[in-house]
Amino acid sequence: MPESMVAPEAAGTPLRLEQRAKLSSYLGLSLKNGLLNLLTLTLYRFWGKTEVRRRIWASTYLNEEAFEYSGRGMELFIGFLIATGLTLVFLLLVFGIQLLGPLAVLLILPLYVGLIVLIGFAIYAAFRYLASRTAWRGVRFHMAGSAVSYGLKYFGLMILAGVTLGWAWPFVERKLAEPLWANLRFGDRRFRFSPVAARKEKVYGPFALMWFGGVVSYAAVATFFMGLAMQPDFDPAGDPAVLAAIYAAALLFGLLFLLISLPYRAAMMRSVARGIQFDGVKVRLKIGALAVGWLYLGNILLIVFSLGFLMPLVQARSARFILNRLVLEGEVDFGAIHQSAESGPRQGEGLADAFGLSII
């Protein structure tokens, strides 16, 4: 097939997406990756992550044709080295500024502002890398736009979320999703993100439940901690029972907050999916709070009881869960889509890996 065009096909082809990963096949891969990470002091993780992605992409089918992932472990490793260098520079600057005495207050704030911008930059760069290493029927995805601009937008939206005590968070999440999808391309055709369509999914009711529930839960746990601290014999270091009670209360708060956040998380996932469009095709995500809860619970148990060894299985399980609930409404003329000359970045998403922001 010529690289410049998808193979001819009747105009107006309906779309069907299916994730066919056999989860049992990831058990051996999880064990191999875990052991090699131990032997190489985690350096193998870049090649292990690449193999996980290749398997997930290869088992994801659009109209009976699998996706392809062309990323390489060395690209991720080079990205990691760059991110490590930037992290060391940041830490040295922080240490040096602290030696300046009163002037440190004036200089440290811009440095942390830059760090927030860098987190946004890392998110966009990771999305761009994954897109550029993904192809379907020989045609590559790629990203337009600027990671720097996204980083600045990320900083502004984080400030907005803070000054509104979190109440702007649904707006923030949608605004952060918009440039990621609106700048995505498949060959020479662009995706679009419709804020109007995304807002048709109501999210503020579930968000209010999460916000007020989180405040009440936090107040209850804080009151418990204050009651413990006021006891005359309070000594968590010397009393295992007190220490266990503290950890149990913190765990209970985490579980309660996770539970009350499920309706919002499901609603926001549906909202973002509803905003995505491509050549007239609209996206719907058929997902509810209970299903998301089972996904999260299963993933947490797999990670905790395997000490992290089953992370590849968790990633494949999550991909299959989401992709098999996506519905694509509309038709596409694939014969009119041509290859793009854009090749994407040369290194992987090192900063996203450093911040723990890698998607898969």
Structural commentary:
- The protein has 360 residues and is α+β, with helices and mostly antiparallel strands.
- The protein folds into two domains: 14-193 and 276-354, no CATH class; 194-275.
- It is 61% helix and 12% strand.
- The protein contains twelve helices and twelve strands.
- A ten-stranded antiparallel beta sheet has the order 2-3-4-5-6-7-8-9-10-11. Strands 1-12 form a two-stranded antiparallel sheet.
- A hairpin with a 2-residue loop joins strand 9 (276-278) and strand 10.
- The protein is globular and about 80 Å long.
- The protein starts with 12 loop residues before the first strand and ends in a 6-residue tail after the last helix.
Number of strands: 12
**Structural class designation:** alpha+beta
Count of runs of 4 or more consecutive helical residues: 12
Biggest sheet, open or closed, and with what strands and sense?
A: 10 strands, antiparallel
Whole-number average pLDDT? 90
Strand content: 5-15%
What level of helicity do the residues show? 55-70%
Count of spatially separate domains: 2
Q: Using the alpha-carbon principal axes, give the shape.
A: globular
- Terminal CA distance reads 30 Å
Unreliable parts: 1-5
